[in-house]
Amino acid sequence: MIALVASLAACSSGPKGIVVNLYGGASGTGFDKIIADCNQAAAGRYTIVGNLLPSDADGQRDQFVRRLAAHDSGLDLLGMDVTWTAEFAEAGWIRELTGDQKTQATKDTLQPPIDTATWKDKLYGIPRTTNVQLLWYRKSLVPTPPKTFDEMLRMAQQLKAQGKPYEIGLTAAQYEGYVVNINNLVTGYGGTLVNADSTAPTIDDKTVQALAMMRRLASSGVTSDSLSNAQEPEVFADLQAERSAFSLNWPYVLSAMREANPKLVDDLGFAPYPSINGGEPKVTLGGMNYAISTYSKHPAESFEAGMCLRNEKNALSAAIDAGDVPALATVFNEPEFIKAYPMKDVMLAELKNAVPRPVSPVYQNISTIVSTTLSPPGKINPQASADKLRKSIQAAIEGKGIMP
Question: What pLDDT, on the 0 to 100 scale, is given for residue 13?
Answer without folding.
Answer: 52
